[in-house]
Specification:
Structural class: alpha+beta
Radius of gyration: 28 Å
Number of strands: 6
Helix content: 40-55%
Order of helices and strands: EEEHHHHHEEEHH
Distance between the termini: 102 Å
Shape: elongated
Number of domains: 3
Largest sheet: 3 strands, antiparallel
Strand content: 15-25%
Length: 192
């Protein structure tokens, strides 16, 4: 084996390789190993961890091993995919009998008569640029057994809770009467 001035190596087989090509090949192999695609499991894990803990993307990057800029793109995309996948499983009652069933469960479990659901909202903050934050609101309505009856995601977080509810389609259906709520009734075992 002989070495020439260009830092190339001639092997006994007659093949000549240069160290810069070896270095380039090695760097390319390392780059391929490091730049693997983010799997759906990793995307879901990062999104659920973000939604459950409310940690910042800068803090989340250490536990997920994903860059904050990438997390800022992955989390909204994954939330949208979750919404599309689960929207058929989240069934809001449509008949008067279904609403009476929900109210009966509230009265039986929580001793809270004529209640047809609990409404709550949660802000999910995203860092867009270095100093700018953007938040979206997840608004949900649950039954007495913590079953999600209705949810809406994507309203701007600058609005108040009342403003977010007012802008939701649940509010529109409530005003036009298309939810088929039960007729007014009396509260039993009281003097009201």
């Amino acid at each position: 084996m002989s070495t020439c001035l260009r830092n190339c190596v001639t092997h006994n087989t007659g093949r000549t390789t240069c160290s810069w090509t070896n270095q380039l090949t090695w760097n390319f192999k390392v780059w391929l190993r490091l730049s693997k695609a983010i799997t759906p499991n990793e995307r879901l894990m990062a999104t659920l961890r973000y939604l459950a803990t409310g940690r910042t993307l800068e803090d989340l990057k250490f536990s997920c091993r994903i860059a904050p800029q990438t997390l800022g793109k992955i989390i909204p995309d994954t939330c949208e995919a979750i919404f599309k996948a689960l929207r058929n499983y989240c069934k809001c009652p449509t008949t008067e009998k279904e609403w009476e069933n929900v109210a009966g469960k509230f009265e039986h479990r929580w001793n809270f008569p004529n209640c047809i659901g609990t409404v709550d909202g949660n802000h999910a903050a995203f860092r867009i640029w270095i100093r700018n934050f953007h938040s979206q609101v997840l608004l949900g309505t649950a039954s007495a057994n913590d079953v999600l009856l209705y949810f809406s995601f994507g309203r701007n977080g600058r609005g108040s809770d009342g403003g977010v509810f007012e802008a939701s389609d649940l509010s529109e259906k409530l005003e036009d009467g298309s939810l088929n709520f039960p007729k007014e009734g009396t509260i039993t075992a009281t003097n009201l």
